[in-house]
Design brief:
- There is one protein chain.
- The chain is of the alpha/beta class.
- It has helices at residues 53-61, 65-70, 92-101, 103-115, 135-147, 167-170, 282-291, 303-309, 337-348, and strands spanning 87-90, 123-128, 152-157, 163-164, 177-181, 183-185, 199-203, 206-207, 214-217, 223-227, 235-238, 244-248, 267-271, 298-301, 327-333, 355-362, 365-372.
- Helix 4 packs parallel to helix 5 and helix 8 (303-309) packs across helix 9.
- The radius of gyration is 26 Å and the shape is elongated.
- It comes from Nicotiana sylvestris (Wood tobacco).
Length: 373
């Protein structure tokens, strides 16, 4: 306000501010007496409300959920905008802060947030990796979002929990992206797969077979990442258009035969210790996989994989050529002559190579060598 008693058009922005945290459930749902607005002349210059709706939605989606909810007190036009946002992210900081104050308050807040939602939920993120919650509460929230057309679902569960995925996830045909941490993947016998799934990222997720195998039929799957997942020996994925496969820190058998028919694979990262097809001809299976990938452009191989491949190296060279490989990253134990020899042959049989990374270990020492070719 200037000296004449009028509001100026100047906007003051704080460079630094403290984040707003939810103190109680009513912070999400202000009453009519909360934050009363005073009509002033400057309201006619409200440029934010005049922005296109998609721009306003994008701005609100960048805010923490509790701050987005607080915009409902700005005016009657803003009261329900936050509740129509298609992306609902309950991230680690939000969950940890609220659960730290009161677990029951957190549960009530999530229940009320979901209850006030309008329209479909495209993206739902629940990160309770820092706290223990009952499986019944998680099941209830997952059931709600799967019934409301969720496409991108992320669940990060605490390692204190043993959370078995509910039936509602396996029956959700709208999923295009699924990211799970510390879950148990045990599909029902009636599970037909994920018809629209494009990306599947699993971390410390245990596979439990219904019969002999845990079959995942995902005809549109393009990106698959398995990180420290027990039970991969039971996993059989049907994904003919798969483009990227990553396996890290797996200490369990991995069935590679199911990927041999994935002719569109461009990125393969095998940073695991054990690969087997239950017949103990691991080298043959690995070479079959590499031979069957004509579009392969990026390849990462662990020292363990190189050790398997380097067994009985043919003097005349490798039985395959990676014509389109551009990026090769190898973890080599230099004190194992076979690994070094196989790595050199692999480089030789990659005529289009433009980037080479070699992680070399000699005893307890590890070094990275980068080469732009």
């Amino acid at each position: 306000m200037n000296k004449n008693g009028r509001y100026s058009n100047t906007i003051v922005i704080q460079e630094k501010h403290q984040p707003l945290y939810l103190r109680n459930c009513s912070d999400f749902f202000p009453s009519k007496t909360d934050g009363k607005r005073v009509a002033v002349e400057g309201d006619r210059d409200d440029r934010i409300s005049g922005l296109p709706r998609n721009v306003i939605d994008h701005i609100l989606e960048l805010l923490p959920v509790q701050d987005a909810a607080r915009t409902s007190i700005l005016s009657s036009n803003w009261r329900y905008i936050w509740s129509t946002l298609s992306n609902l992210v309950l991230d680690y900081d939000f969950c940890r802060k609220l659960i730290g104050e009161s677990e029951s308050k957190f549960k009530l807040a999530v229940d009320e947030i979901l209850l006030l939602r309008m329209g479909n939920i495209v993206k739902f993120v629940l990160d309770i990796s820092g706290a223990y919650l009952s499986c019944a509460d998680i099941d209830r929230w997952v059931l709600f979002v799967t019934r409301n057309g969720v496409k991108k679902l992320t669940l990060r569960i605490s390692n204190l929990n043993t959370y078995t995925l509910p039936l509602s996830i396996f029956e959700c045909s709208t999923l295009t992206s699924l990211e799970l941490t510390n879950c148990v993947f045990k599909p029902p016998s009636s599970f037909l797969g994920f018809p629209n799934l494009i990306a599947l990222h699993l971390e410390v997720t245990t596979f439990v077979p219904t019969t002999s195998f845990c079959v995942i039929n995902a005809p549109l799957l393009r990106y698959l990442s398995l990180d420290m997942c027990p039970g991969t020996q039971y996993l059989n994925i049907i994904s003919p258009v798969l483009k990227s496969l990553g396996v890290r820190d797996s200490h369990y058998y991995l069935m590679l035969n199911c990927f041999i028919n994935c002719k569109k694979l461009r990125v393969v990262k095998l940073l695991c210790e054990v690969v087997d097809n239950q017949n103990h001809d691991e080298k043959l299976t690995l070479e079959k996989l590499l031979i069957s990938l004509p579009a392969l452009e990026v390849l990462y191989l662990s020292s363990y994989i190189l050790e398997i491949l380097s067994a009985d190296v043919v003097p005349n060279g490798l039985p395959f050529t990676l014509n389109f490989l551009r990026h090769l990253s190898l973890f080599v134990a230099f004190d194992h002559l076979g690994q070094t020899s196989y790595a050199l042959q692999l480089i030789k049989n990659s005529p289009s190579l433009s980037k080479l990374e070699i992680w070399g270990s000699l005893g307890a020492t590890t070094k990275l060598f980068l080469c732009d070719l």
